[in-house]
């Protein structure tokens, strides 16, 4: 494995009001990306604000005292910037990709939205209808539906199990004043991370962030925590009957929270288990048994909980077999060490993917924002690759034994018939 001395370095500055500004300078790139993260989201919503974080994400594009919704769109368009946003259980992230030379102008628009959007009443009612359609779309899309149901089931009784979109009832009833109150109590300087990746100067972004985001209220968002002793709802299965051609399922195992000491070993484990055409799941489930077209594994990590999730789509009469095979592949790691060749290939796949991702500023601006939130500081790519390179076959086996031995996963499925049960 070659060295990574030339990977870009990261910098972080914390402003007096608590805003963190993180950057990853990549000289020579024409493009750059900038983002503003609100480090409080769905998991912190009170019951009367279910779905508020995502609803507000939509509404921040709908007007400030100096820019109408059309002007925001037109200004991004006129300078060649592409802006977007997303909401997860623990963050709302607003970002834009543009030429590096116009990132300052792009950031001015994002900052105005972030600080000054006042959620115009007319736009609230228009966007309410859009969000309600999004909820229906997720219900009508089987892969999205079963992902959401699994997430709510696995994290039932935990704030992470709150639906990101809310419900038709909660979105239909929440009023503009309540949304504005929620925004003002959660869009706080201490919960704000500005991130930039590309050929952009860190000190200039620090100065601009201090100037444009200085009006953010201070304080700390109230964080909802699970009841003491909470555990993920594993060892249970649930099936949703729908007239589909396939049965789609997720199965999941508990993991330590994001930033845990095993995270690099788990990255290697996940690569071998279910990432790409050389993974064990792909070879066994698809290539050898022809059980599925799509099968993969992924890790969903949060500040106080995480899960290893396996997804597959198969025929109803072979769904139980697919669940059994997937579970057997997880347990296989507990019984035997991976070969030196497989370990080296997995590390090289991770290394190559992360180095190639340096050419994608959008990916990098999300990554440094995310690692800043979860680890307390942005993680340099070189440091993560050095940690990956140090993982041994014994460590992969040992972490599998520690986390998966004797664990019965949660299984949630959608399709015809009664669906699969727990692995046998």
From TrEMBL:
Domain spans labelled Peptidase M16 C-terminal: 173-349
Xref: SUPFAM superfamilies: LuxS/MPP-like metallohydrolase (SSF63411)
Molecular functions (GO terms): metal ion binding
Superkingdom as given in the UniProt entry: Bacteria
Classification via Gene3D superfamilies: Metalloenzyme, LuxS/M16 peptidase-like
Residue ranges constituting the Peptidase M16 N-terminal domain according to the UniProt record: 20-167
InterPro entries linked: Metalloenz_LuxS/M16, MPP/UQCRC_Complex, Pept_M16_N, Peptidase_M16_C
Family statement drawn from the similarity comment of this UniProt entry: Belongs to the peptidase M16 family.
PANTHER family: METALLOPROTEASE, MITOCHONDRIAL-PROCESSING PEPTIDASE SUBUNIT ALPHA
Record-given protein name: Peptidase, M16 family
